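Could you show me some protein's one-letter sequence and the numbers that encode its backbone in two labelled lines?

___
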Amino acid sequence: MKATYAQYILDFKQPAGTSRGVLRQKETWFLVIKDGERTGIGECGLLRGLSFDDRPDYEEKLRWVCDNISLGEHALWEQLREFPSIQMGVECAFRSLKNANPYILFPSEFTRGNDQISINGLIWMGDAVSMKKQIVAKIAAGFKCLKLKIGAIDFDEELAILKEIRQNFSSEEIELRVDANGGFSSTDALYKINKLSELELHSIEQPILKNQHDIMAELCRSSNLDIALDEELIGIVSRSDKQNLLREILPQYIILKPSFVGGFRGAQEWIEIANQLNIGWWITSALESNIGLNAIAQWTYTLQTTIPQGLGTGALYTNNIASPLTVSNGHLKYDASQEWDLDLNRF
């Protein structure tokens, strides 16, 4: 058994605005395992500036994984607790290796093309005109759930955009989620959240920056809008620490990006704890290429959740890897008649 890794730079079709800045490129890494005639591939979806494992020794750790690939998936996973995106890549590469088709990690009615996953339409931050254009396009494309990145432009402008949607579509017709990415201050967060709640939103993600547990817990208790933790989960590794965090804050939802929380095994642990505490959850990609998105989508389908998931990121890039993943009428599908455009022999 041999393993190699390779960096891949993804180019955004349009600059993607968040409260942390504008993204134009996305670095990612592929881990490839070869064993005889079989090849497995996994994506280590690092996101600079946000991932827990955004460290100077990241590539060195990838090299270590390749040198020690004979340890196997479970032993490697345990030794990679400080590198959740590499844990994800290891899980996917080994699961890919087990299948005759390296792109089918979780065979199901989804991968056979007989079922689909409901997803939200993602609206990036920008000026009011650009955000409205995105919204019109997503609604025209059949999305029934929109997720708007907020916190970068004037709050009153953002409220006006959301009010305009509500004037034309009820909450039964269009579900609205917003993501502040920690963009609200601790002093004005409750006011802003309650103003947003007047527009019958589904939820708000990470209204304030992480590690303000007392304030976040109070917001979850006091606000009129359901709150979902996202960045708050990054870097929480042990099961006991996960339990303590959710018990302390008691959010209404958590959002799980497998590349940020230790792959499927790490995300499953969060789900088990959330279920015990009656906390809702959904799965979101972390701007991976179609290699990572494919793995996350296939796993998500096995969870049999019915609410819209955050898996609509495959069309963001000019140079993504062509795949059978397609988005139609607000759903992600796997078109089994289509081929992957990636020669695994290049690795």
